[in-house]
Amino acid sequence: MSQENLTDEERKRQELLDKLYQKLGRDEYIEKLSLEQLEFIVNPITNSSFLNSCPGSGKTEVVGFKAAYEASSWESPYSGIAILSFTKNAASEIWKRANKYSKQKAVQFPHFVGTLDSWLHQYVFQPFCYSVMDYEGKDGDTSVNIIDSDSNSPFLENYKSVISYQPNYQEVKVNEYYIDSDDSIKFNRNRGSNLDSDQKAILFENKLKFARSGFATYQDAEYWSYKILNENEMVLDLISKRFPYIIIDECQDLAPSRLDVIETLQDKGVVFHFVGDINQSIYDFIDVDPSQIQDFIINSGMREMKLTKNFRSNQEIANLCARLVGIQDSPEGRATTSNAVSCVLWECPSDQLHVLPSHFEWYLNSKNIECGNCSILVRGKSLLNKLKNTTPLKSISFDIAKAFFLWNSESRKTEYITDALELLGRSMCNLAYKGRGNHQNQHCPESFEHIDWRIFLSNILNSSKDLATFKNEDRPQTWSQWCGSLKIFLEAYFLNLPDTYVGWNEAKRKIKAPSRKANELVSNSLSSSTYSTNIRMTTIHDVKGETLDAVMLISNQDRRSRGGHFEDWVEDPTSEYARFAYVACSRPRDLLIVVAPTLSELQKTKLENIGLVSEELPGTLSQWF
Which residues of 437-451 are buried (b: 16+ CB within 10 A; e: fewer)? Predict the structure, then answer.
């Protein structure tokens, strides 16, 4: 088509394409880029910007192209661009795409592509922060040991703070809190605190003692990095010259401590480019505040650019997501490929939750949608466990049998491995430590480091293959018979556990057949109770950034756990709860099913107003076939 026949938009797009061709050569991927994407890619890196990206807008692709475009003509051998994200997978994806598009693998040193944490530790924290921490090092080695915030290592007893005595005795571990940039005390996971000045002083001094010994948590590292950049002009000058331009993907996940570091670098002249979707900010538990990020973007004078085309979801799903968070102009979604309803509402009473995975699988099959890239999503792990534990059987032996079954499954899906570790961890903790363990780390007891506990559980599971057949030679075992075999198998492992609260003779009495199941075959119990092996079940946080073919989002039955009930999602479009639903509902391409408890007419109307269409919950499996 001649230039005379082009519209202004087409002419502008062609001009930008030509710029890209000059640096990267002609490529089929380049030719597919939209005008909005091209505008960000060729925007001068010297001009800071915020790329406001709707879900499914191809921002990872765009960041990869931007990195390739800038690196292709980069001249300095000593300074480079840092392209940072928040997970290794996201950073790896950007790196792969950047090098694919650059043809000559140009996105190498002096540039950096990785996580924000790895960049901060490699270039700021480990090389320089020992000085501001007053850590002298050992034998010339000043590298700092990073301690997990959930660690129960015995050496941490040396750094605990007793902040009140009897009758209200209270102690705080040094890795349970951190110091923010204004030197105030903050507890992990937004735990509330009412500390007086003396208590704050005790906690502050113990954190300094921890640092002087060469230890820090990840959040401590951000504090000390902020301190060194603000107190040592030479270090700040070095970093700003080494990385004069920094691109941050998923900027909506920036915690205040990281914004403080960024502001310090920005004031020194570093140019930042933010990429993300503020409506996908769902990390309030680590103090991430989307309004604070938005204010930072505005106050920094970043030029706002937009990606408004959703290449992932069809228009019905894109419209529903926009309504959830109060977006007036919905992004342009894909055209709907059929007359089928894309946004479905099911009502499900609490006693029928266990059949939802099978219902979803049947529904997908009826729509000719493969199950492999579909997920069932929930807000929290308690509901997830209810869905997965679809059986009324409640016993340690059943949980262990299920763990062995999942671990030895042929498919070896990640969620099976995770669930097996969780089930066995809970069981062994109940047997040996009366259930006193950290539920966030496979019920790890205090006498174990998390990694050592996980290795211990893995060793048991790796040796469980014979027991996971639930047979004695070729004869299927009943629960009574299998529990006898399990006792023999577990005894040696149990006796090697440190500091158990009970002896083996007491513990083994808990390993018994589930109630009224002594003579039932173990394999029969598992086959009738194990959840669908074809569909992934996980939390909303776990699928952030993913593209799925279909999603079932399940509401909690009540509002006791805030953020997981459907009314939380539609009550206030500015709330984090609405953003939970937004993240979940924006994952699928063509099918979204929202499952709510039995609804009143008013409640049903609220859900239908955001774009859901009510359908009857499918019948029982026997009716289907």
Answer: bbeebbbbbebbbbe
Question: CB count, 10 Å around CB of 306?
Answer: 15
Q: Are 235 and 112 contained in the same domain?
A: yes
* Same domain, residue pair 36 and 69: yes
Per the omega criterion (within 30 degrees of 0), is the bond before 110 cis? yes
**152 in the same domain as 300:** no
- Count of the separate structural domains present in the chain: 4
259-280 residue pLDDT tens: 999 999 999 999 999 999 999 9
Extract the runs of DSSP E, i.e. beta strands, from 217-366: 245-249, 271-276, 303-307, 309-314, 332-334, 343-347
When pLDDT is averaged across residues 4-33 and rounded to a whole number, the result is 81
Give tens-digit pLDDT for 549-587.
999 999 988 888 788 898 999 999 999 999 999 999 999
Q: Based on the domain organization, do 103 and 252 belong to the same domain? A: yes
**Is 543 within the bounds of a domain?**
yes
- Token pair of 444 as six digits: 């790890």
pLDDT bracket for residue 145 (50, 70, 90): very high
Whether 136 maps to a domain, the answer reads no
CA distance 236 to 242: 10
449 and 519 together in one domain: yes
183-223 pLDDT, tens digit each? 888 887 655 567 788 888 888 999 999 999 999 999 999 99
Q: Are residues 397 and 450 in the same domain?
A: yes
CA end-to-end distance (rounded Å), the chain: 57
Examine the domain organization and report whether 12 and 115 are in the same domain: yes
Tens-place pLDDT, residues 423-436: 999 999 999 998 88
Is the pLDDT confidence value at 364 over 80? yes
Q: Domain ends where: 183, 213, 243?
A: 213
Per cent of the chain over pLDDT 70 is: 94
User: In this structure, is residue 519 part of a structural domain?
Assistant: yes
Q: Give the span between the Cα atoms of 533 and 186, in whole angstroms.
A: 42
Residues 123-139 have pLDDT tens digits of 999 999 999 999 998 88
DSSP structural state of residue 160: -
Nearest to 81 by CA among 97, 58, 64, 96: 64
Q: Which of 362, 423, 425, 430 is nearest to 391 (CA)?
A: 423
212-254: pLDDT as tens digits: 999 999 999 999 999 999 999 999 999 999 999 999 999 999 9
Amino acid at 458: S
Domain that holds residue 455: 391-529
Please identify, among 185, 213, 241, the residue that sits at the C-terminal boundary of a domain.
213
CA distance 264 to 358: 53
CATH number reported for the structural domain that contains residue 71 in this entry? 3.40.50.300
Q: Are strands 177-179 and 185-187 parallel, antiparallel or unpaired?
A: antiparallel
> Quick one: average pLDDT of 389-400?
71
Which ranges of 232-325 would DSSP assign to H, the alpha helix?
Answer: 233-242, 256-267, 290-299, 315-324
In a domain, 333, yes or no: yes
Q: Do both 365 and 422 map to the same domain? A: no
